[in-house]
Design goal:
mainly beta
């Protein structure tokens, strides 16, 4: 199983980015999809999660700003990030069950 994350980059505070995670197989039909992030010097934290039933959960710090969604037909999970803040700067990881993708860097400038 391979998870390919993309869409990271540099954004200004208040801006938006959309992360995309594409799986090599129909893994998002089997496992919950999630995004984690890790900022320099901090522990890795859960950002958002979407269950097989489409139930979503978010970290308090991103509620109302980030939206996780899934396109099972495309084996893809998205993370729409709006109203970005400098504290959102981190490496973001896509996760499906026990499988982790490589990180994608998100940097938000003030």
């Amino acid at each position: 199983v391979q998870l390919q994350a993309s869409g990271g980059g540099l954004a200004q505070a208040g801006g938006s980015l959309r992360l995309t995670c594409t799986a090599s197989g129909r893994i998002f039909n089997i496992y919950t999809g999630a995004w984690y992030r890790q900022a320099p010097g901090k522990q890795r934290e859960l950002v958002a999660r979407i269950s097989l039933d489409g139930i979503t959960n978010y970290a308090d710090s991103v509620k109302g700003r980030f939206t996780i969604s899934r396109d099972s037909a495309k084996n893809t999970v998205y993370l729409q990030m709006n109203s970005l803040k400098p504290e959102d700067t981190a490496v973001y990881f896509c996760v499906a069950g026990i499988y982790w993708g490589q990180g994608t860097q998100v940097t938000v400038s003030s």
